């Protein structure tokens, strides 16, 4: 198992890519504390947690609002207490408010950046001391997006927040290298999740026509990359952006 004994926090683990990451990281031996907003289907989150525990996985869900920075310290303390330390952090949680710039409301823009960028920044900050005390190869992974590296019409706010994560990660990689703490980015392309599943078929076809590998990605393929960057197999990798998009952006 690639993550045997490692203690990991992952934000936004109740659905989509995050949910797949929680499941895969736990299957690789990690002890995982994952966050959810606390405003969605709490029964589904509890059911997911129970299901994984029945398989022998050591996981626990915590309700965290990433737009409320003041609450991070207490929540992160609860998570690290549960884990018994911290070896890795996956900043996966994100929201989007898609709209043309002329129609974008300030509160929509603020919410997107508050969760995706500001939330990730200060959540990482609060985890830093615990990560620095790790006795293994500590690692931070930021979940960006192909939109953050290539842009997309109607997603300027989302793209700005995801591009910001790339600059943040590269800066932190330089800042924290002396502590042997690695920081990297994953930028997924079109991944099959509940969110993408409801898109119109014409929209899906337009994406498919531009993917050289001729298919959409699977959430587990992103989870496998996250596992690699958290594992000791990537101990000499930091400050990098791993694009998982089937060639959509090269």
**What's the CATH H-level superfamily name?**
NAD(P)-binding Rossmann-like Domain
In the sheet with the most strands, the strands line up as: 3-2-1-4-5-6-9
- What is the level 1 CATH name? Alpha Beta
CATH architecture assignment: 3-Layer(aba) Sandwich
Helix content: 40-55%
CATH topology: Rossmann fold
Structural class: alpha/beta
How many separate helices?
9
Q: Label the overall shape.
A: globular
Q: What portion of the residues fall into strands of 2 or more residues?
A: 15-25%
Distance between the termini: 31 Å
Element-by-element helix/strand order: EHEHEHEHEHHEEHHEHE
- How many DSSP-defined strands? 9
Report the radius of gyration as a whole number of Å.
17 Å
Low-confidence stretches: none
Q: How many domains would you count in the coordinates?
A: 1
Largest sheet: 7 strands, parallel
Tell me, rounded to a whole number, the average pLDDT. Answer: 94
